[in-house]
Amino acid sequence: MLVTWRQDWSGAAQSSMLVRIVSHSVEINVLGSWQASVGERPVVVPPGHQRALLSSLVVSAGQPVAADTLAGQVWGDQQPVNARGALSTYVTRLRGLLGKQVIVANPGGGYCLSVDEDKVDLHRFRRLLRQARGAGSAQAELALLREALDLWRGRPFTGVESDWLDMDVVPSLTEEWFTATERRIDLDLARGASQSSIAELSALTTQYPLRESLWLRLIDALQRTGRRADALGAYRQIRSVLRDELGVEPNAELQRLHQDLLRDTTVKRVTPLGASAAPSPHQLPHANMKFVGRRDDLAALDDLVATINFSATAGEPPTIVVAIDGAPGTGKTTLALHWAHRMAHRYPDAQLYLNLRGYSAEDPVRPAAAVQTMLRSLGVPVERVPAELDERSALLRSTLAGRRTLMLLDNVRDAAQVRALLPGTGALVIVTSRNQLRSLSIRDGAQRLSLQRLSHDDAVELLETAAGQERVAAEPQAAAQLAELCEGLPLALAIVAERTQRTETLSQVVQALTDEMSEPGSFRSGMGSELYAALSWSYRALDPPAAAMFRKLGLHPASDISTDAAAVIVDLPLTRAKQVLDQLHDAHMVEQLRPRRYELHDLIRLYAAEEASRTDSTDASLAAIRRVLDWYLHTAVSAESILQPRRRFDFVAPLTSTVPPIEFADQAGATAWFEQEFDCLRSVVIWAAAHGWGGHAWRIVIAMTTFMDRRIAWQEGAELLETALAAARAAEDRTGEGYAFNSLACQQIDQNELARAMSNLEQAIDCFIDTGHQAGETMALSNLGLVHAQAGEPERGLQFCTDGLALAEELGYQRGVANNLNNMAKAHIAMGNQEKAIDCYLRADRLFAEIGDIEPGSLNLLDLGRSYIATGQHTNAISALHRAAAGYSQLDNRRWQAIALYDLGHAIARTGHPGWARHCWRAALVVMRELADPRAAELEKLVGSHNSAASWVQN
């Protein structure tokens, strides 16, 4: 049942009628203190609920708003007994103030504010921002941004009492203002920094001291005008504020700018005017080709989007959120997929799918991880993903702005799980859940469809589709009995319908199902007798290999399983396992939503696990779990060995399955496997850590570290490493603790959390000493030396690296020797001795070249090239940086290749060849634009003309 109003009008006549009654005399301003007028006459709308109601209609001006949604926005959880009556009373009063035609009643009790959107400053502001984004020149964009920002007079909706506005609307509007203001400042700075820009940024940073992006622009403007000391002082100020208020360090972009200032390197920054095309993911799983019935439900869903206008003149339509709820097995996902495919042509820019596992045996997907997954699907580099959920959510909205997006969020537990994923405008979001998600309707305006079991006619139609019309026509009474026995539950009907194809008559099916339902235990697993009977009956009809696989799939730690993992868990050859999976799929015991990947419905998975515990011995079940955990570990090591070819994996035990791990030909294949399996691997690790398989848990995480460093936001990586550490402790595995402490410290070094990194590295060293793991000890000593060098204690840092170097040389561990030499060089630089640093870099370079370790070797060459530049040895710098760029190109690591090319261009320019330098900068610019790297602004100017590059060399 659809729990909101439905639009019953259709056709152009009624739509055009709405256009004709638009009021052009009413003007409403909310970007500051609340104001309204009719013609030249100011209108005072009484504060309280009446003004809150009009404000809610203002936010959606020109679009109908359901009565239930309005009531939730005006009163929240404290709605009066007759909320619709109260709304009607307030609307009557508002019409008396503004005019009868200004607020239009819609069928079902909703209302629409029918005014000229340009007479509402909020919508005029957003129209100007859309035009600015599409402007053909920086000058035109700047003019439009200034016009838009001039509309702001203060905090939006001042004088309106509304929790909904305060929590949901005003923060989003304020973020839009920040984004537009910062873009306008960027364009001003691109024309040349001025004292007025600095004064404005100083005032803004005083008013908003925790907004790092404003400090970034202030420091940039100060250094542009030659005020380097003031720029360094501003950095110290924001660092102090962040430490005192939040206990964190400035973000990576501010830290990079600070380092450039310390090196006295001019970095001119402006948001790039051009950007490469963003990916257009089309992730919807296959729809069920045998979908039948649900005509009324589909009609209700169609009505929700019937009046959405995507014309160029209409502006961005609102995001439509549809929440489909219902009991387990009622076909929520099937309906959602069917309708999503029907709507896909209206949302061509992105079609996103995410199973949030709200009711599976695994932990539900947390909002921060869900947003990160979406951003990764949309091609947002991991370096740009913020730490805080609110900031991630804002980035997702910005990424989707102006894109017609369809988003299917499946198996949702509660509204909080999806709220951060909702796009701002122009999207269709379909949510499925066993809960009714009332707060999503109240707070976010979601339209709810409560899905019931199939009607008798639809249930019989489903049987006709599966068993054939002739058989149903021959036994109509038996078909009716089957529909009745399954009580219209689509999941039970689908399983039974498949079985009817293997029996002589429908009457025999009725008798078998009736007998099954009379067995004791039909209500086990929290499911009804009709579904339990259908599952049990279908399971007993499977041949032994299929039944064995079905039981083993119930033991798998994640609901999403690949064909390879399924083969491992039953220890069958891949081709044979695929045949068995096809049998289970045909019997509706597993679902195939993507090629080579299968899922079990939560209830079916629970049934399979119960059958495994009842049928298989404990030893057999444990062996199956060990096989699949071993396989994930060995395949992760196989992939990691491609990403880090010389890395040691002395902690991996022999494989217990006859199915070999996947072998990868190149880095692209290894990365693609990690990308595809990451969510599954995370579930496997969490399950293993919680169920006594801690040794596998920490080893799998350590085998993922290179991939996580490159592709996963550091917060998600840190959480998995904390899980690995807890698992190793629970298993009393000191070696595992050492690896986890060391890997956590590496992440903390990247985030400049040096005190925490020191503590973890000291504990890692203790663990490795206790277990006699000398290779791990030299690794941790090298990292500890680096931390002390970065923390202003280079002498201590040099000593730790010297100890690590001696131990690595004693072991004959060349990679450890080279790593310690590289970090020793950094300690020498911190002590002001570039020549000793260069000697260490050169020794490390020879070792990395001997062992063929390209990635750390390329980083060492990058460091070497920078030291050569610092000492004026530009020809040597060119040679080192050219080799570094070539190494990163071989690794297909575009980010670091661009950094090497950036430095290479500077080295070449210092030899008096600006034309050659521009070739390097142009190649680096393409990638740095994508990553929003602050160096892109400088490169924009340097590649623009020969004169600008030549001028840079002279200066």
Automatic annotation (TrEMBL):
InterPro entries: AfsR-DnrI-RedD_regulator (IPR051677), BTAD (IPR005158), NB-ARC (IPR002182), OmpR/PhoB-type_DNA-bd (IPR001867), P-loop_NTPase (IPR027417), Sig_transdc_resp-reg_C-effctor (IPR016032), TPR-like_helical_dom_sf (IPR011990), TPR_rpt (IPR019734). Keywords: DNA-binding, Transcription, Transcription regulation. Residues 16-115 form the OmpR/PhoB-type domain. It comes from the Bacteria. Gene3D superfamilies: P-loop containing nucleotide triphosphate hydrolases, Tetratricopeptide repeat domain, Winged helix-like DNA-binding domain superfamily/Winged helix DNA-binding domain. GO terms for molecular function: ADP binding; DNA binding. Pfam families: BTAD, NB-ARC, TPR_12, Trans_reg_C. The keyword DNA-binding applies. The keyword DNA-binding applies. Residues 16-115 bind DNA. One of its GO terms (biological process) is phosphorelay signal transduction system. SMART domains: BTAD, TPR, Trans_reg_C. Belongs to the AfsR/DnrI/RedD regulatory family. PANTHER family: TRANSCRIPTIONAL REGULATOR REDD, TRANSCRIPTIONAL REGULATOR REDD-RELATED. This is OmpR/PhoB-type domain-containing protein.
